[in-house]
Amino acid sequence: MHDDPEHELELTSSLVPLFVITNGWTLPPDHEYERTALVCAQPGAVTAVRTLSPEARIVLDLVAEGFLSVAEVAGHTHLPLGIVRILLAQLEDGGLILVRQPVPSAERVDRELLSAVLDGLKSRFGA
């Protein structure tokens, strides 16, 4: 064993099950964060983090400077995406973060409809 006080077992080590990091939480169904969802800390949230786990504090510190995607948060923390999603759900429930879901892809344009509109405009205004 090491007697060095700085050498502590990290909660993210392979010896600690991942459910310990989330305190046994599972992802609530209304918190299905996509990888491209953007996350940032609420103003003043970083000062009110005394009761957070070390991993949740790291996540909050990461997003304190601005928006990061869920995938970027997972990459910076080296935690699995599922664990990051659970931590984000905890932070969002506590009012500490703001989550922006990605804008849905635009629907395919109906080319026939656009062609008919263009033909109508041409016939109406002459072109």
Automatic annotation (TrEMBL):
Q: Where does this protein come from, organism-wise?
A: Streptomyces qinzhouensis
Q: A Pfam family in this protein?
A: DUF742
User: What is the phylogenetic placement of the source species in the record?
Assistant: Bacteria, Bacillati, Actinomycetota, Actinomycetes, Kitasatosporales
Q: Which PANTHER family match?
A: DUF742 DOMAIN-CONTAINING PROTEIN
Question: What is the protein name stated in its UniProt record?
Answer: DUF742 domain-containing protein
InterPro entries associated with the record: DUF742
